[in-house]
């Protein structure tokens, strides 16, 4: 979704609330909310038309353009076209101000007319020069690509699946909104065992030895025996009554993530929907400590030496002392943090529903760099492989490769749908699942994608048909077991695709 950021999900809809601290770039993500209108003063005619140029941001260079036109009431309205962010003729919210030879577009553009050029700044700080053109680019069709091999098997589950499968020794583990956690044989899709707590399971499980841990909307953290699904203990997280709203075309509090437990040094670290963060003894299920954050914790924590880090819907990333739970620092990222954090050396890297991808110093919480995703939510947890970060997006519709040292974009590839999950990286390829959504202010279609790892070129796309709900396709990460890619769909199925 685009970076909007009510409490909704990373990929979201047209009219959403933005947290007050979201940067001006996030206005792009709200472009669907309305139009830039102003009474047309004399001299406005000189600005009417199509304007096209290039923005050289610190992390990448993008092409974009605006159309300024008058409507039937004689007011000026503006649209944005930015192919790299999948915006084509998108009506912009806010106010257009034209004063003599000067124009301001709702914090996105401030420029002066100089013949057939508009010269000024984009998003208040990036230099931009636009030139008058006859027409702006239009939305291209989804390309006709090889589909790749069909699935070996499909197993229908109950409810929807937003959590990601995790695999070990030929078994895939995943929960559903239908209240069942199951172990599936990757060889043929058959059930090895099932466990039914009876409430939605939206969080991805964690495997540790012969144990599997997951959280459930009944308010508990569960530990099961991995071999047969026997319950070993459960721990009360205290959030059984916390409300949750899944993706909806007109309600934008998208709350479809579930917290993922972290198991490290004999302790389970896990967040809760009531804003608390817990350290639990992995052997017994007894509480070691509990602390309060400022909002729902729906993502996963990361270990970093003597501390553990986690983000929340209150926009903050927190560092807690592992032994006591004492807060060491917190950093306001400007938007909801819903994904699992990634520690790379002395940095912690996280996405959010507004600013994009941000890197902080583990020791102090100081911001080291951030890379905008042009208004898109970032629910995807980055994967670091051979010194490169690979990450999905929501409304941006891109799989991106970035330099972890400074967030510089190495390449970005359009995959035509929401890529909420973490890309699956192999020696030669990158695989990603995409979700579709309708009604929505942008085109999003679902599929299983294969990209060239070095260049990002899209090589194959297995399309997943619109199943009739608001969202369909793959909203989770993929898993690899031998030569089989395991994928789950919003509609409630798990598939085994051959690698190829």
Detailed description of the structure:
The strands form nine sheets. Strands 1, 2, 3, 4, 5, 6, 7, 8, 9 and 10 form a ten-stranded antiparallel β-sheet that branches. Strands 36, 37, 38, 39 and 40 form a five-stranded antiparallel β-sheet that branches. The protein has no helices and 43 strands. It has 500 residues and is an all-beta fold.
Count of helical regions: 0
Derived structural class: mainly beta
Strand content range: 35-45%
The helix content is under 10%
Q: Globular, elongated, flat, extended or rod-shaped: what is the shape?
A: globular
Q: What is the oligomeric state here?
A: single chain
Radius of gyration: 23 Å
The biggest sheet, with number of strands, parallel, antiparallel or mixed sense and barrel status, is: 10 strands, antiparallel
Mean pLDDT: 91
Which regions have little confidence, pLDDT < 50, spanning 5+ residues? 3-40
Number of strands: 43
How many angstroms does the end-to-end distance come to? 29 Å
């Amino acid at each position: 979704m685009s970076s909007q950021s009510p409490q909704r999900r990373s990929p979201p809809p047209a009219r959403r609330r933005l947290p007050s601290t979201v940067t001006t770039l996030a206005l792009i993500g709200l472009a669907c909310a309305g139009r830039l209108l102003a009474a047309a003063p004399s001299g406005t005619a000189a600005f009417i038309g199509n304007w096209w140029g290039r923005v050289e941001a610190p992390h990448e260079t993008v092409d974009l353009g605006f159309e300024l036109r008058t409507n039937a009431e004689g007011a000026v309205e503006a649209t944005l076209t930015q192919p790299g962010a999948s915006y084509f003729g998108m009506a912009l919210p806010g106010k257009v101000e034209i004063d003599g030879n000067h124009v301001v577009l709702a914090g996105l553009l401030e420029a002066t007319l100089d013949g057939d050029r508009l010269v000024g700044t984009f998003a208040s700080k990036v230099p931009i020069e636009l030139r008058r053109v006859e027409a702006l680019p239009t939305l291209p069709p989804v390309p006709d690509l090889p589909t790749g091999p069909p699935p070996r098997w499909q197993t229908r589950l109950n409810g929807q699946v937003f959590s990601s499968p995790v695999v070990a020794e030929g078994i895939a583990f995943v929960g559903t909104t239908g209240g069942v956690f199951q172990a599936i044989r990757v060889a043929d899709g058959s059930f090895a065992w099932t466990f039914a707590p009876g409430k939605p399971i939206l969080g991805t499980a964690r495997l540790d030895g012969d144990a599997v841990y997951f959280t459930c909307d009944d308010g508990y953290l569960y530990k099961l025996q991995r071999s047969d699904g026997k319950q070993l203990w459960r721990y009360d997280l205290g959030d059984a009554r916390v409300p949750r709203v899944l993706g909806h075309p007109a309600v934008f509090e998208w709350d479809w993530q579930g917290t993922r437990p972290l198991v490290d040094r004999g302790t389970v670290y896990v967040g809760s929907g009531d804003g608390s963060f817990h350290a639990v003894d992995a052997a017994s299920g007894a509480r070691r400590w509990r602390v309060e954050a400022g909002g729902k914790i729906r993502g996963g924590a990361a270990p970093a030496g003597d501390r553990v880090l986690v983000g929340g819907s209150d926009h903050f990333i927190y560092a807690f002392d592992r032994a006591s739970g004492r807060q060491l620092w917190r950093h306001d990222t400007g938007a909801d943090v819903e994904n699992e954090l990634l520690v790379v050396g002395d940095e912690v890297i996280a996405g959010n529903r507004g600013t994009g991808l941000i890197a902080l110093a583990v020791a102090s919480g100081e911001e080291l760099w951030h890379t905008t995703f042009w208004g898109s939510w970032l629910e995807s947890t980055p994967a670091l492989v051979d010194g490169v970060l690979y990450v999905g997006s929501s409304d941006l519709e891109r799989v991106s490769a970035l330099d972890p040292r400074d967030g510089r974009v190495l390449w970005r590839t359009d995959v035509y749908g929401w890529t909420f999950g973490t890309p699956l990286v192999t020696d030669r390829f990158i695989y990603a699942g995409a979700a579709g959504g309708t009604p929505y202010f942008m085109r999003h279609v679902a599929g299983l994608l294969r990209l060239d790892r070095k260049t990002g070129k899209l090589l194959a796309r297995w399309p997943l048909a619109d199943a009739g709900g608001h969202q369909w396709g793959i909203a989770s990460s993929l898993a690899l077991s031998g030569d089989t890619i395991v994928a789950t769909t919003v509609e409630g199925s798990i598939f085994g695709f051959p690698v190829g």
